Amino acid sequence: MIASTVGVDARAYAEAHPGEMQTMASLCGSSYDVIVLGLRLPTDASRLGTLWVYSNTSAPSNGQNTCALFDNNTGSAKWMKLELCDNYTATPCEVDQGTFSQYAGPVWQEPGGCGKVTALMKDSSSSTTYIINRVITNVTGCN
To answer: In degrees rounded to 5, what are phi and psi of residue 43?
Structure first.
């Protein structure tokens, strides 16, 4: 299922590539069955990475479980960081970072309502120039 929050281009991509969407969702777990964000980064025209956020339809009543993946579309290994936070001050953010040729993540927040996701990519950990530097707030519905 694709949530109404997913942009037109990401929706079209997801609909045209259901196998890839299923593969990415399976990395989160079988209950993560709703795409809530699909974002080509840094832009739709220049896609070097794709940020995917999934939720599940069996989320508890106190919030929406959330899983994020950051796909590397460059064809070579890059230093990447994926961070997923929720709006609970007592809950630490979940982070996956390192040099990846395929993807960073998955990372989870349960529940993950009002989530903030950060996707960073650069050539190496010592590089000072980011290829992708994106922060998205309220990535899931607020609880």
So the answer is: -145, 165
Q: Distances in Å between the alpha carbon of 26 and those of 75, 92, 106, 115, 131?
A: 22, 24, 10, 21, 27
Q: Are 41 and 29 in contact (CB under 8 A)?
A: no
Q: Parallel, antiparallel, or unpaired for β 94-100 and 78-85?
A: antiparallel
- The residue among 29, 36, 83 whose CA lies nearest residue 55 is 36
Task: Tell me how crowded residue 141 is: count the other CB atoms within 10 A of its CB.
Answer: 17
Cβ within 8 Å of residue 132, ≥6 positions away:
41, 42, 48, 49, 119, 120, 121
Amino acid at 86: D
pLDDT in tens, 117-135: 999 999 999 999 999 999 9
86 Cβ contact list (under 8 Å, min separation 6): 63, 66, 109, 111, 112, 113, 114, 115
Q: pTM for this one?
A: 0.87
